[in-house]
Amino acid sequence: MAKIKPRTLSGFMELLPAPQQQMERIMETLRETYSLYGFTPLDTPIIEDAQVLLAKGGGETEKQIYSVSNFNLKGDKDSNLAMRFDLTVPLAKYVAMNYGQLTYPFRRYQIGKVYRGERAQRGRYREFYQADIDIIGDGKLDIANEAEIPSIIYQTFSKLGLKRFQIRVNNRKILNGFYEMMGLSEQSQSVMRTVDKLDKIGPAAVRKLLVEECAVSEQAADEVLTFISIQGTNAEVLTALEAYQGKSQTFDRGLEELTSVTKYLSVFGVPEENFAVDLTIARGLDYYTGTVYETTLLDHPEIGSVCSGGRYDNLAGYYIDKPLPGVGISIGLTRLFYVLEDQKMLNPQMPTAPAEVLVVPMSADQQAYAISVATQLRAQGIRTQLYTEQKKFKAKIQYASKLGIPYAMFLGESEEQENVVALKDLTKGQQVTVPLQEAVETIWEYIAQAEEIKAIVE
Amino acid sequence: MAKIKPRTLSGFMELLPAPQQQMERIMETLRETYSLYGFTPLDTPIIEDAQVLLAKGGGETEKQIYSVSNFNLKGDKDSNLAMRFDLTVPLAKYVAMNYGQLTYPFRRYQIGKVYRGERAQRGRYREFYQADIDIIGDGKLDIANEAEIPSIIYQTFSKLGLKRFQIRVNNRKILNGFYEMMGLSEQSQSVMRTVDKLDKIGPAAVRKLLVEECAVSEQAADEVLTFISIQGTNAEVLTALEAYQGKSQTFDRGLEELTSVTKYLSVFGVPEENFAVDLTIARGLDYYTGTVYETTLLDHPEIGSVCSGGRYDNLAGYYIDKPLPGVGISIGLTRLFYVLEDQKMLNPQMPTAPAEVLVVPMSADQQAYAISVATQLRAQGIRTQLYTEQKKFKAKIQYASKLGIPYAMFLGESEEQENVVALKDLTKGQQVTVPLQEAVETIWEYIAQAEEIKAIVE
User: Fold this and answer.
1) What's the pTM value of the predicted model, to 2 decimals?
2) Min Cα–Cα distance to chain A from B312, Å
């Protein structure tokens, strides 16, 4: 028969079993942490009505979107279909649709695949996981939520085993207020985009662009550079900002918010070294209105932010006439996974075996005994594989070691007669013949030790 | 601003938070059970190259498939895209692609969404979850695997809380062998399709169709009806089948396999009442070659099979020149969920609250104390929500009770000064003022009790 070459599309993640186990562990850690903070899981369709998805409309998104069509459904009312490109628009749709049935503040997490038709490029994915948390208020939302969100990110990253990361925090009201006092409100978007290039092109080039392309006076450009150069401990930055107080209500409110967020972040247990007030953070999207976040791996600044978000005033304005302020953050999970893999940060000690023990009947005569032993092991919560293939002994051992299964249990005629098992520790190469329950205890000791290796990242 | 009506496409599952928690619990139970049997999780893209996906080609599938296109990627080598319609084809692709890097027998589970452009109809979904387990051999695969697979389904359904279900088992070799001895090999596919209607149209109508549409003689039709009417305990059915032995090698081998599967299923701990040898089970797909399964809810036979599968000889023949026999089973999870919901079988006792405790500062002055308390609760593994909105006391209580959160912790000035918490049991309406650690113990007692309610189904 003529064969079709099996292949996976470029830009689509597909892992071998061992790395997939690592990815699963990351997702489990995220689910557990988000649940600990009282977030409820959501699951929305991957396909939506294109009109709903593109309510906001506009440029690059529309080009990147995947359209979906189907022979059977041509002319059907549901024939204008597209795939979601983020989890925020589906959340907005969900809250607007179910407005009266939800309880506010509504806290949800969602871990799901999103789709973007990006041109092939290293580090760009066409299908990738996002992991989002958002808190949505009905009309109002207290400032404490803007500190809680980054504290969750701190917990999540710490549980994954990451240590050298920093959550950088700013407030859009501070920026907007500052540009207001400078008389630069009109060009504030282009100024912020320019300032955002500071890390890449340096202060001199930023100054040049501000003057030449953003219609900023030489003097104002200097003031902008002075402002975004404010650095130091969080307390020092906040003190420096006090000098600008009293000239713009927006600025004053932003400073008050940033001061609260900084204070609360400490109370949430986030160490000073893991968060920094950073006036260069702006986030491009104009729908952020308060606190904004970016998270960088300190040893890999070149990667940019691995987790970003902020406060917005109006989640679902395209669908519903209710003010729904919220705050949220998104981890690009697929990208984060590949970054950790690339940087050799994934913990090789983390067990990726699909089972703790391989139960091996020595011949077909012990099949029933082996099944009964495996059934007892599973009933006690031990992940067990049964190996019933008629292969040479060596092949059976190789099977277990290839998969990294730590124990094998050999069951021959004498073991069956004496109702015992030959338990081999494949790491140490030691074998003992013991009653099943004793073997179970040995394996449980191993599991307890393996559980200690919680960190996915070294 | 003109609004766009937020809506979710028909045939696409989207749940409110409480039922979503039930769905999550079902998926968690599946993941845990499959892991206990040594299956490794896989995750493959939802979009594949259409040519790869449609390698088998043909009819209804091609009409139901969703094609995907994108503005940016027109003319790109990856521009002929389609969405997966099951998890078997992606598995075949995966195994063929990674043939040399996998260890056999390869045991994987996959829980994922699949897409079919079905015309709108009650009980038909366009996006739905399948939960598949398969064991793939390299060249050979022992018969014990054909008993292990339904034993996993028994465990899974039992853990979900289902009791009155039956896994019905047959063997295609028995059917093929029987039709061979009847001289009906040529029309065996159409005969099997007709016999499959027995439950719906009754024996007389089946007999009529066999004679009139399948070119079966009157006498052979009687023999077919006699054969498929064989009923009784599993031992009785197997004994009755022995009468047909010695006339077809295929039949004899099938009977041997079915006898082994029946014997092993008992050893795997599956009670006789939960599985039945049933000669009417054939499964339409012609790629099944040995044991076949269907699972019915005994109180709802009208629903048909909720979990089906079987043994096949050649998983990936379209992609690779290696014989890859396997056995697998698939649960249509979205459908199962709606069936359980429709039949009011979902356990209303199962907690669906997003947290065990709501921490409520009585005024903004206790915000920091509340954050510190919530942080300590979370550090001890208690799912905690922090309620910092400035609302009336009644609104705060309503928030907790709407979400079904069992405890609230009120923190006023005096509680902060004395470093205690006012813990209210919202179910009983009782309130005590105690040190935090005492409150933690009370909540842990509740959690331990709630954990007992494992069953999702009543």
Assistant:
1) 0.95
2) 17
